[in-house]
Amino acid sequence: MSKVLIVAEHLNGKLNSSTARCVTCAKQMGAASIEVLVLADAPDAIAAEAAKIEGVSKVLSVANAANAHALAAVYAPQVVAAAAGYSHVLAPSTTFGKDLLPRVAALLGVAQVSDIMHADDAHTFQRPIYAGNAIITVQAPADQTVVATVRTASYAAAGAGGSATVEALNLSAELPSHTRFLELQQGKSDRPDLQSASRVVSGGRGVGSAENFRVIYGFADKIGAAVGASRAAVDAGYVPSDLQVGQTGKIIAPELYIAIGISGAIQHLTGIKDAGTIVAINKDGEAPIFEIADIGLVGDLFKLIPELEQAIG
């Protein structure tokens, strides 16, 4: 039976929901034990959140001033030190996990499995390739530690009915001297987080300009949604890159996804294939986005959006 260690993702003292999604993946593997590793300078509150995730048997808490910022070069040696005795080490396939786990795999001398979207068993996994156009089944060696990132859009977050024990852990790991934190630049918004929001409104090149993007922001605020964008909109400078949805942006799975002025390039569709209901608004009735949309509106977005807002009330 497998013993799984999940590296918790957190920011500003709060646990990211991606950690609970990794727990669901571990359950699908048939894990006999699921434990969460929290690395932080002040981990108590984060560890307490992790302990409430249903299915988690133990939370390992590591307090170290060097962990004040999530630097992969600093985290990786500690994860390796903590991973002794575990059959699996998991992290979400977010920017955090994609940065950290390749280093962990390299230090352990194993190949990483990326973007698990389904676990057939503890060592056999399905993952997307060719921008999500095909699904491949891969098998990890049973005699090695499995280091893998989890495609969080493919899993629902585990519930909050857990009561795991929290254990303070002292790790003996040599931390790098060549890496140091300088600055964190991040957008601040009162809107829901793009990767965890149940509703997302995204704009594309069809919006026309950064100034016109206020229509997207306004509509998103009207329905309590997060804001996203296509790569074309980001490349055109309409919005910052942290709003990009797609293969080279964020992979999301909201209950409702509204694509406005987005043609539907395969790169973008890869990021929304797990969405519940997809609504497309585009003046081009032949746009590829309509092939996958559940609801489609053909017309001028600058006329349709005000009409929708009025109908919502």
Could you list some keywords that capture this structure?
313 residues, 5-stranded parallel beta sheet, alpha/beta, 7-stranded parallel beta sheet, Rossmann fold
Topology:
Elements: E1 3-7, E2 10-11, E3 14-15, H1 18-28, E4 33-40, H2 44-51, E5 58-63, H3 72-82, E6 88-92, H4 95-108, E7 112-116, E8 118-119, E9 124-129, E10 134-139, E11 146-150, E12 165-168, E13 199-203, H5 214-223, E14 226-229, H6 231-235, E15 256-260, H7 266-270, E16 277-282, H8 289-292, E17 295-298, H9 301-312
Parallel strand pairs: 1-4, 1-6, 4-5, 5-12, 6-11, 7-11, 13-14, 13-15, 15-16, 16-17
Antiparallel strand pairs: 2-3, 8-9, 9-10
Helix pairs in contact: 3-4, 5-9
Overview of the molecule:
- By secondary structure, this protein is of the alpha/beta class.
- The protein folds into two domains: 3-168, 3-Layer(aba) Sandwich (Rossmann fold); 199-312, TPP-binding domain (Rossmann fold).
- Helix content is 26%, strand content 26%.
- The chain is built from nine helices and 17 strands.
- It has a seven-stranded parallel beta sheet, with helices on both faces. It has a five-stranded parallel beta sheet with strand order 14-13-15-16-17. It has a three-stranded antiparallel beta sheet with strand order 8-9-10.
- Helix 3 (72-82) packs across helix 4 and helix 5 (214-223) packs parallel to helix 9.
- The radius of gyration is 21 Å and the shape is globular.
